[in-house]
Amino acid sequence: MASEEWTTAEHANRYLALADAVPHRAEGEGVLAEQVPRDARRLLDLGTGDGRLLALLQADRPEMLGVGLDFSDLMLEAARGRFSGDERVELVRA
């Protein structure tokens, strides 16, 4: 099953190493940022991975609280590293 690959360190680490090189990623992230209201107080990020999108949105929405949900322990570990000490983000394995 394709979703099981996210539970392997090899797959998760390969994605994390290449994440910044995904074609048109900046454009897609820009569209996402435009669609989320600036006054959004809470955000649920399903399949949060390493929390990249939550961090992107919090950059100009510092009052926003976020919940990142993922089933990959490896990706949640990366997200925990990103949000270490940030009480505005709750990470949930599900």
Task: Explain this structure.
It is a single chain. With 94 residues, this protein is an alpha/beta fold. It has one domain (2-93): Vaccinia Virus protein VP39 (Rossmann fold). The protein has helices at 9-18, 25-35, 52-59, 73-82, and strands at residues 42-46, 65-70, 89-93. The chain has a three-stranded parallel sheet with strand order 1-2-3, covered by helices on one side. The radius of gyration is 13 Å and the shape is globular.
**Which strand order spans the largest sheet, edge to edge or round the barrel?**
1-2-3
**Regions with little confidence, pLDDT below 50 for 5+ residues:** none
- Overall 3D shape: globular
**DSSP strand content:** 15-25%
Helix vs. strand class: alpha/beta
So how many helices? 4
CATH architecture: 3-Layer(aba) Sandwich
Radius of gyration: 13 Å
Mean pLDDT: 88
Instruction: Provide the succession of SSEs.
Output: HHEHEHE
Number of domains: 1
CATH superfamily: Vaccinia Virus protein VP39
Overall strand count: 3
**How is the main sheet built?**
3 strands, parallel
Cα separation of the termini:
17 Å
* Helical content band: 40-55%
Q: What fold name stands as the CATH topology?
A: Rossmann fold
CATH class: Alpha Beta
